[in-house]
Amino acid sequence: MGNAVRIAGAVGLCLALGACVAGGVESQHAAASGDIAQLVLGFWHGVIAPVTLIVEIINRFAPHALPWQPHLYEKTGTGVAYDVGFYVGLAGGPSLLWRSRRRPAL
User: Fold this and answer.
1) CB-CB contact of 40 with 85 (8 Å)
2) Structural contact between residues 82 and 73, judged by C-beta atoms closer than 8 angstroms
3) C-alpha–C-alpha distance, residues 47 and 43, integer Å
4) How far apart are CA 44 and CA 86, in angstroms?
5) What is the 3-state secondary structure (H, E, C) of the chain?
6) Measured between alpha carbons, how far is 62 from 56 in angstroms, rounded to an integer?
7) Which of 102, 87, 23 is nearest to 59 (CA)?
8) Share of the chain above pLDDT 70, in %
9) How would you class 44 by CB atoms within 10 Å of its CB: exposed for 0-12, middle for 13-18, buried for 19 or more?
10) For residues 19 and 48, is the Cβ–Cβ distance under 8 A?
11) What's the alpha-carbon Rg for the chain, to the nearest Å?
12) In angstroms, rounded to a whole number, what is the distance separating the alpha carbons of residues 60 and 93?
């Protein structure tokens, strides 16, 4: 039962954070909020970039199959802070998500 609750919580969190995909109204609002918001938004878009790329490919070959227009990169996030966050998220984000939680015994 504990694993089911964790999985449900993780799915709910991903859905909530997925609302901030590039090109959305919330994402555009956050990109206009300042450097810290742009840095965090860029990091998030970098972390979800592999999934977003797959969604863009699906949308390219099956237009209108998805209820939204996906974007890999926020068009209004043109600041250096967004770029730094995006590349840090792209380079380090997936490795942070997929690394093993077990520590080797000393």
Assistant:
1) yes
2) no
3) 6
4) 7
5) CHHHHHHHHHHHHHHHHHCCCCCCHHHHHHHCCCHHHHHHHHHHHHHCHHHHHHHHHHHHHCCCCCCCCCCCCCCCCCCHHHHHHHHHHHHHHHHHHHCCCCCCCC
6) 10
7) 23
8) 67
9) buried
10) no
11) 16
12) 25
Q: State the number of CA atoms in the 13 A half-sphere of 74 facing the CB.
A: 34
- Please indicate whether residue 13 or residue 63 has the higher confidence score (pLDDT): 63
What pLDDT band is residue 4 in, cutting at 50, 70 and 90?
confident
